[in-house]
């Protein structure tokens, strides 16, 4: 991961290894209970009987990971898939050098007919999605997700799509400014912003905007005291193509903080920029870099209208001490998942389902939800022979007795 994009050791350890080990430990601890048939109460229409749900594996699952967290985004869904009893074919992204290490680990841990890994080439991806799988789990962009879903539809294969989008961060006027700033910057600059749930842009109440700018500048100097061309505790951009795309965003707004870059290292300085034109590419595309647009708002309705231009974000974050503001945002704005007074950490809670809706994906996983994502819920109703309801022809006036029974 260091070779990929100079990802700091601490970030790699915490976001890739710790999360994966936690996922494994939760599955080991709880799998026996997850696998048990779930007993369901009996309805009068099927009395006497007993009912339950049996979890069974789909069969052969295809798991397609992503380059930004190459280890986590392969092994986290893989834990759910093998816990549920599936065989798996795994493909990582060709943009990451981690593929070779992951292949060695999978070959050492699993029989080839249980979990196998294929090369990360685009041609292989195209051939894979033409095959008949029992389940497909894809992490990546929305456009590729549409292609995966269209291919899966030919075989009526169920899919889980973990996509992305423009995850907004609403900053109310009633906040603890320093704590808010630290948490926003931490979420935005983790892996240099190359995370599907990174705060993509800030919606800042106009009464707090200038104060927030001062705080952002102060805490950036605390986080990165070295010269701007170093930033040893922040990752670089993954490759030249993505670097050029993110660098172009620097021309699309008024730069308030930062704005420098290093073409040789593919390093872009953490940059805060004020946006007034919502039709610019920087406000239409997922940024995936350390560039943070700021948009001023006066009312929550105005903020919601701005978010609705890129609907159903994967993540949403709101900072406020006002419980009415928080309740309004959660009730009125659709999003995949999110945090109140923090960013991204809903992903780290394996008791919560992680997933999107609409353009940000479908289905969810983590912990029990990962097991369920790779399991078919088989309904079973069991009857004995001792009692038989009089429901057979000739019917005559039997409906009258059922009417009385329903009353």
Would you write up a description of this structure?
By secondary structure, the chain is of the alpha/beta class. It is built from 13 helices and 20 strands. Helix 2 packs parallel to helix 3 and helix 7 packs across helix 8. 36% of the residues lie in helices and 21% in strands.
Present the secondary structure layout:
Layout: H1 2-5, H2 9-35, E1 38-40, E2 50-57, E3 60-64, H3 72-83, E4 87-91, H4 99-109, E5 115-117, H5 122-128, E6 135-139, H6 142-154, E7 159-162, E8 168-171, H7 177-189, E9 201-205, H8 209-223, H9 240-249, E10 254-257, E11 261-262, E12 267-268, E13 271-274, E14 291-297, H10 300-307, E15 315-319, H11 323-332, E16 337-340, E17 354-355, E18 361-362, E19 364-365, H12 368-373, E20 375-382, H13 398-406
Parallel strand pairs: 3-4, 3-6, 4-5, 6-7, 8-9, 8-15, 9-14, 13-14, 15-16
Antiparallel strand pairs: 1-2, 2-20, 7-18, 10-13, 11-12, 17-19
Give short descriptive properties of this protein.
six-stranded mixed beta sheet; seven-stranded mixed beta sheet; 21% strand; 407 residues; globular; 20 strands; 36% helix; alpha/beta; 13 helices
